[in-house]
Each structure stands twice: as C-alpha cells, then as structure tokens.
Amino acid sequence: MYIILLWYTIHNSLLQRGDPIVQKESLVDIVVTRIKNHIAESELRPGDKYLSERELIDELQVSRTVVREALISLQSIGLLAIRRGGIYIEDQNLDIIKEILQHHYDTHGAKLKELVEVRKIIELGALRLLIEKAEDIDTGKLHEINQTYYEAILNKKDTRKADEAFHRELIKATGNDTFYTFSSIINHYFSMTKIDLTQTQSTLFKSHKEHEMLIDMIATRNLAKAQYTMGIHLLPITTYINQLEEL
Q1: Cβ proximity of 33 and 10 under 8 Å
Q2: Which residue has the higher pLDDT, 235 or 105?
Q3: CA-CA distance, 137 to 218, in Å (whole number)?
Q4: 158-168 mean pLDDT
C-alpha cells in the first residue's frame, strides 16, 4: 500500500510540474500486481465475486482511471470478468495449462528426472530473487509454516502438506507472479506422478532444520550457502528418482 501511495504522489507531482509522464502505466502495473496477489492470497476460485470498483479505489487509494485500466488488463488475460452486477473471478489460465499437462501425462507419462531438475532450478532461482531484492524480507511466514511442519513430525502426522506450503511460500515471497505460476505448473505436474518418498522421523527433522537454515540464509542474504543448503535439501528426492530409473 505504501508503495502505491508513494508512486501516486510522484505521479501527481509530475502532472503539476508538466513534466513528461511515463509513470502512469507503471502505476497501473503495480495495481495489477496488487490485485493478482490479493486474489491468490484470498484463495478465490472461478465464479467468486470480487471487490467492486469503488472498494478497490478505497483500498488502493488510486484514481478510478487507474483501477479501470488495471481491471481491463486483468480481464484481457482471463483472470477477471467484468459483468453487469459486479466483477468476478474468471477461469484462470493455469487451469487450461493443467488440462494440457494432464493430457500430456496421460499420453506420454512424465520424465521424473527432468521434473526434479526443473524443480531444483526453480527453487535455486527463487533464492536468488529473494536475496537480491533490495527491500527487507519478511521471513515470519516461513517460520510459521516450518513450525507447523515441526509439529506434524512430532505428532507423526503427514508432513507433505506443510512441506509443500513452505516451498510455495518461498516462491511466493519473490513477488514474481510469472515465476510463481511456473512453479505451480511444475508442482502440479510433479503431483500427478504420485511419488511416495518414505522418510524416517530423523530425516524429517533434518529437513525441518534445513528449512530453518534456508530462512536464516535468506535473512542474512547469503546466497551461496542458501543454494548449497537447498541442494542438500532436495538430494533425497533426486537420489530416489535416480534409483527408480536404474530399476
């Protein structure tokens, strides 16, 4: 919110001075990103009614023109539908991609080793994006999710959901929507393989510790150690897939 207000102040200042304006389009981009993030965080589904134009103006503190341009942009990519009676979540492009991937998987199967390699590239790339960001990084959510992971280990419950949430939050924290979408696509395709990697309680505790180390490396902006730790963290699944291919 502060970024939008700051950008809008600069924009209005330039208008008053009569300087050439290039910021208006960038302001729309910022609002588009804010809306997309809000939709993702609210876990809204296709068909759900979204905030009204008036509510968006009040929430984002920008002009009606900026909000309308952002809404038109989001409608053009199929994320929102502006209809009489309100603004609605439209069928998301990701659902279409998932259908294509499902068809490909049903027809050709999946090259598991390649999936693991792509996932590793995404995870390491996320760490670089996070650590190279200029602003401070809020690691509180990552700690919270990892605590849930720890409690699942202690109570001998399924840890997979918490582990997936940790890695999803790590990607999400980059603030890069395209990167997050690619990650979601790969993870969806990965989930279709029904891989069941059995881990002992000791290996799960080791995984939890690696999560904590990753958070610390992100907070201290130590990219080399963060990427090394992620490589170690992903080693069990890599080893497992290599063993499967040898059978």
Answers
A1: no
A2: 235
A3: 8
A4: 88
